Amino acid sequence: MRAVARRLATIVPTLIGVVIVTFLLTRVLPGDPAAYFAGPTADQASIDQIRAALGLDQPLPVQFAAYVKDLATGNLGNALSTGQPVLTELAARLPASAELTLTALLISMSIAIPLGILAAVKEGSFIDHVCRVVTTAGVSLPVFFTGLLFVYVFYYLLGWAPAPVGRLDVYFTEPERITGFFTIDSLLAGDLETFRAAASQLFLPAATLALFSLAPIARMTRASMLSVLSSEFIRTARAAGLRSRTVILAYAFRNAMLPVVTTLGMVFSFLLGANVLVEKVFAWPGVGSFAVEALIQSDYAPVQGFVLAMALLYVALNLVIDLVYGLIDPRVRLEA
Amino acid sequence: MDRRAFLASASSAAAAGLLGSGLPWARAFAQGAKQDTLLLISENGPNNLDIHGVGANRPGYEAAWNCYDRLVTYGIKTLPDGSRSYDKDVIAPELAESWQADDKGITFKLRKDAKFHDGTPVTAADVKWSFDRAVTVGGFPTTQMAAGSLLKPEQFSAVDDHTFRVEFVRPDALTLPDIAVIVPAVFNSALVKKNATEKDPWGLDYTKNNVAGGGAFKVAKWTPGAEVVYARYDDWKSGPLPDLKRVIWRTIPSAGNRRALVERGDADVSFDLPAKDFSEMKKAGKVAVASTPISNGMWSIEMNVTKPPFDNVKVRQAIAYAIPYQKIMDAVLFGEAKPLFGAASNKPDDLSWPRPAAYTTDIAKAKALLAEAGLAEGFETRLSFDLGQGVVGEPVAVLIQESLAQIGIKAAIEKVPGANWRGEMAKKSMPFMINFFSGWLDYPEYFFFWAYHGQNAVFNTMAYKNPALDKEVDAARAAAASGDKATYEASVKKMIEIAYDDAPRIPLFQPYLNVAMQKSIGGYAYWFHRQLDYRSLVKTVA
After folding, report:
1. Closest partner residue to B224 among A84, A107, A164, by Cβ?
2. A158-191: per-residue pLDDT in tens?
3. Considering its fold, how many domains does chain A have in total?
4. Which of residues 122-181 of A touch B (CB under 8 A)?
5. CATH of the domain at B343
6. Contact A169 B30 (CB under 8 A)
7. What interface predicted TM-score (ipTM) does this complex get?
């Protein structure tokens, strides 16, 4: 527990750094939000008016002080692109992104880990080659391309997938918000129709993301399994006559998991990044597309809010991974 | 987990995902609601439901147009090609049943049965409050009101509950047309005042997320960035009750997916399509398409006359003769635009606007003109365009760059991010650019006032100041106000001729607004604001 507290204490300087850097970065960006939002027929006077309304006519330190003060009160400012408070937007959109990313990660894990194990156990066999081809293909196809291809084939040509119109088909109503995950909320509400609709909307974008993240997980599982399988305790286990299945899953895999978990953490974070493109293709109302939209319009508040939220998320994620290490491998716990 | 178990679970998961969509009862459930529901898709959604709001975007104008009433609106006419468009020459009643103009102002008689969405009757006091708001809040609404000489609250008065009067500050032919645009919408003043705060006396924060009007549609649900759901206001009195009971407007950022959705029949209307998609869909014939020239709008090449060598009219004309006009029409617009080049003369023979200039692609002539200007060797410059409109701007820039190289002009292409474009325009820092301008009010002198006049508005990116031209523009405005047709015609023709001969701005083409819809959708009409009016749309289900 003390280790957790100590870890948490190290977060503080990180966050202060993030706040300062994002503030400065957004100011360095080219573009004049006041002119952009003044609209097509604005004259200089109305541009200046908007600049004053946004507080952009103040010197930078004053803007920064105002920003920090707002942050302390939980006010992240307003997003000009959607007109809503950034906090509301992030809260509404984060579950959408999280649902997509986690589903993708689950799909990816359920394919990549068994594939990696099999490839390691039967090194050089047919399945090992399949593993190599799948992972190479997955990592070399950019997500927006796979996304568009999937839409073209599974929606446009075959008609198997539903229309890529976001989280739910137009004629369904959103389930009552409990977790913000439509699939879970609809199940909690006992509404199977909505569940099916939400799950079917989720499948293609999640599969697109999953394909992209297969490679690192499968490769890491394979490499780490290979090194464990060649170690002496495995030979001993085999010599002792343990079943091959027990040896591989109970002894080898458990020891091979540590690097895999590290990779999972990394994969999760870069999936959140790759999300941006997938969200654009599938009209998914997540945080990624929101942040990109804001960036294009030089809309500072959402970009700052997004970076801050992501930083918090990563910090939390790293903490969780550190804790999981301890569970998998007691040695790590002792060292901490 | 062994291989079998894994394969079984993976394939069942995949099957569950894919089957979900094809379920027969999901379709059946949707069928009933589909009949009077319109599914509309477009690239962006609104960021504000109130056009008076700070930074309200174009999709926001659409929400305001359909959810609020104005005193008057425009009529609808059928164009020669069979498509329907608003009619700038016919002002039609909306909240006002009738109106009477005299020398000093206009008196509007409001209809007595009109109610806001919450049931409160619409009174002249609401109209007065709304007009006061539009001229006071600043920014775009105030600028737009000023375009019709609607400048200050003292001009507006509520004579009695159902009589509203506007006093003129000066005679201006655009006053009544300006009252029919989106900005002078009528707000439920009691409701907004109740939700206003000391810091926000006009209740802009409230109307950003809530409709406080009495228009034909109400916003039933709005998920910013994703979806707007409208429900018809059944008690609407300011026009024939719309056929559609619900309109669902989804934001689909990917152009390819918007096209797929319409072609598969899953979306009813896809608004504002790229020219390429439009021309291909028109050829395929699966869906109905409509395209209307954007009124009072043109894409053009603009040269800052304060920056040499563009201060030399010969250089400007040389460039006008070096533009690959037809290539731009074919390769960028797939023929889907109105050419604004190759006229017999720069001297207009009628008042139609935008009209072609007399320039064509003539490299020999361009070279000769450049030599006359003493620049036979050519020169270096940079050609800017707005990345926000890159679909058109970028290929046009590349074609022009290629063509200018033939007369020795090396133009480096500069891509300006959308957020930056307006600022660069205001600074007048770009020497040479590709740009688009359109005016809501469809009058040539309105275009010239913003884009050519020496008052040097943001849109006069050329920083062009020519007293001879200003004289004609001012004369045309005055003649329009006083109803002096002969002077008006002469002045408009003269100002176009001067502008085209002097060539600070070289017209390229007048773009079209493209819409694709299912064949079951009827009643589409083009509006000056280039957004969709749901009120006239009908959906017939076979």
Report:
1. A84
2. 888 888 888 888 777 778 878 888 888 888 888 8
3. 1
4. 148, 151-152, 154-156, 159-166, 169-171
5. 3.10.105.10
6. yes
7. 0.74
Compare CB distances from A50 to B41, B54, B256 and report the shortest one's residue: B54
* Domain endpoint, select from B189, B206, B231: B189
CATH assignment of the domain containing B257: 3.40.190.10
> Nearest-CA distance from A79 to chain B in Å?
9
Which residues of A are less than 8 Å from B1 in CB distance?
114, 249
B58 and B102 co-located in one domain = no
The Cα A72–Cα B516 span in angstroms is 48
Co-location of B122 and B225 in the same domain: no
Same domain, B356 and B487: yes
Question: Cα distance from B303 to chain A (closest Cα, Å)?
Answer: 20
Q: Does residue A140 fall inside a structural domain?
A: yes
User: pTM for the complete prediction?
Assistant: 0.81
Question: What is the Rg, in whole angstroms, of the alpha carbon atoms belonging to chain B?
Answer: 26
Does residue B74 fall inside a structural domain? no
What is the extent of the structural domain holding B179?
85-189
For residue range A53-77, list pLDDT tens digits in order. Answer: 777 778 888 888 888 888 888 777 7
Q: State how far the Cα of B258 lies from the Cα of B267, in Å rounded to an integer.
A: 8
For residues A194-216, one letter each, b for 16 or more C-beta atoms within 10 angstroms of the residue's C-beta and e for the rest, the string is bbbbbbbbbbbbbbbbbbbbbbb
CA distance B166 to chain A (A): 23
CA gyration radius, chain A? 24
Confidence class for position B31, pLDDT limits 50, 70, 90: very low
The arithmetic mean of pLDDT across residues B520-527, rounded, is 92
Q: Are B493 and B531 found together in one domain?
A: no
Looking at the domain assignment, is residue B530 inside a domain? yes
Q: Is residue B205 a part of any domain in this protein? A: no
Same domain, B406 and B356: yes
End-to-end CA distance of chain A: 11
Residue B225 inside a domain? The answer is: yes
Query: Domain range spanning residue A189?
Result: 86-335
Flag if A49 and B227 touch (Cβ within 8 Å): no
Which residues in chain A have Cβ-Cβ distances shorter than 8 Å to B4?
Answer: none
Cβ-defined contacts of A145-148 (< 8 Å, 24+): A146/A208, A146/A211, A146/A212, A147/A204, A147/A205, A147/A208, A147/A277, A147/A278, A147/A281, A147/A282, A148/A281, A148/B254, A148/B256, A148/B257
Q: Please give the average per-residue pLDDT across A210-233, as a whole number.
A: 87
Using one digit for the tens of pLDDT, what is the confidence trace for A15-55? 888 888 888 877 776 666 676 666 555 566 767 777 777 77
Check CB contact under 8 Å for A111 and B47.
Answer: no
CB pairs under 8 A between A and B: 204
CB contact under 8 A, A35 and B423: yes
**Residue A232: Cβ within 10 Å count:** 7
Residue B20 pLDDT > 60: no
Q: Which of A45, A165, A196 sits opposite B252 (nearest CB)?
A: A165
